[in-house]
């Protein structure tokens, strides 16, 4: 599958085909957002940076070299760099990230694993309805409308459950630090 995304990005770089970019965006944007959240960004900021990262993919596609990296590594590196730039601009605490960091899909290394485990423990403490919409939104990459349709609940309920889940996660995150 990685080779398929790498070929897709390389073709998009050559042809500037918007349909190829739409496929890349649909696949990578939710994953980039989840990655940025794991790096410590607030969900709203992560969403904004994911959009910015995907825009960079479109603008910088001509710089992509499939001989040096696969598409996911290149895209997650763009996102990581945007995250670091944002943290520096806002003078927020910044974690040093290893330049040889594994692919953004690999969650079993270093600090990312610790944060991921800590977040998973907090999510397990949430009420099931809140954990379910949180998982569907950030791990499955589904839109709020899709979640409402799948669960058969109003869109407002999806948004309320997410807001409540984030409030509880913030409180739990503060407790365990």
From TrEMBL:
Domain of life according to the entry: Bacteria
Annotated ranges, domain RNA polymerase sigma factor 70 region 4 type: 117-169
Gene Ontology molecular function terms on file: DNA binding; sigma factor activity
Keywords: Sigma factor, Transcription, Transcription regulation
A Pfam cross-reference name: Sigma70_r4_2
CDD domains, A to Z: Sigma70_r4 (cd06171)
Gene Ontology biological process terms, A to Z: DNA-templated transcription initiation
Annotated coiled-coil segments of the chain: none
SUPFAM superfamilies xref list: Sigma2 domain of RNA polymerase sigma factors (SSF88946), Sigma3 and sigma4 domains of RNA polymerase sigma factors (SSF88659)
Residues of the RNA polymerase sigma-70 region domain: 24-91
Membrane-spanning residues: none
Family assignment from sequence similarity: Belongs to the sigma-70 factor family. ECF subfamily.
Matches recorded under NCBIfam families: sigma70-ECF (TIGR02937)
Protein name in the entry: RNA polymerase sigma factor
Provenance organism: Marinobacterium nitratireducens
Lineage: Bacteria, Pseudomonadati, Pseudomonadota, Gammaproteobacteria, Oceanospirillales
């Amino acid at each position: 599958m990685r080779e398929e995304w790498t070929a897709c990005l390389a073709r998009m770089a050559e042809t500037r085909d918007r349909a190829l970019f739409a496929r890349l965006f649909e696949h990578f944007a939710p994953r980039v957002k989840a990655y940025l959240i794991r790096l410590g960004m607030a969900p709203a900021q992560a969403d904004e940076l994911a959009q910015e990262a995907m825009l960079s993919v479109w603008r910088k596609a001509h710089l992509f070299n499939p001989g040096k990296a696969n598409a996911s590594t290149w895209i997650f590196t763009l996102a990581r760099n945007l995250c670091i730039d944002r943290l520096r601009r806002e003078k927020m605490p910044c974690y040093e990230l290893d330049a040889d960091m594994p692919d953004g899909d690999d969650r079993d290394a270093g600090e990312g694993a610790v944060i991921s485990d800590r977040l998973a423990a907090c999510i397990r403490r949430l009420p099931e309805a809140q954990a379910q919409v949180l998982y569907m939104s950030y791990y499955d990459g589904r839109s709020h409308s899709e979640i409402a349709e799948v669960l058969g609940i109003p869109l407002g309920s999806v948004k309320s459950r997410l807001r409540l889940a984030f409030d509880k996660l913030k409180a739990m995150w503060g407790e365990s630090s």
